Task: inverse folding
């Protein structure tokens, strides 16, 4: 397994940006890979992954993640990357901002 870094959309309700906090019932998290096209076939073949969130850009709606996975997973994800934002919107992955308080 190897680790690669990606920028992927995130979802959840942002309550505060400093420190970054989300709602208990809708936490801030990278889009779920299991909702993406082709993921179930990877699971059927025993392909696994571990995702670690590094930095969030609330204004742009992206999170930088390190993903430890088999090469097959990385190949699959890299093929989806150009359309990941549209796929996330189409599957209902959204960011909600609930009275965001920013550090002054």
Result:
């Amino acid at each position: 397994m190897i680790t690669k870094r990606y920028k992927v959309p995130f979802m959840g309700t942002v309550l505060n940006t400093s420190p970054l906090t989300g709602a208990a019932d809708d936490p801030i998290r990278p889009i779920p890979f299991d909702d993406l096209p082709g993921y179930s076939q990877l699971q059927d073949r025993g392909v696994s992954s571990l995702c670690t969130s590094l930095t969030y850009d609330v204004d742009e709606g992206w999170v930088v993640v390190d993903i430890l996975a088999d090469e097959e997973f990385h190949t699959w994800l890299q093929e989806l990357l150009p359309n990941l934002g549209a796929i996330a919107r189409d599957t209902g992955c959204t960011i909600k901002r609930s009275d965001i308080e920013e550090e002054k």
Remarks:
- The domain at 2-92 is CATH 3.30.70 (Alpha-Beta Plaits).
- The beta strands are 2-17, 20-22, 29-30, 49-57, 62-69, 95-101.
- The chain has a mean pLDDT of 87.
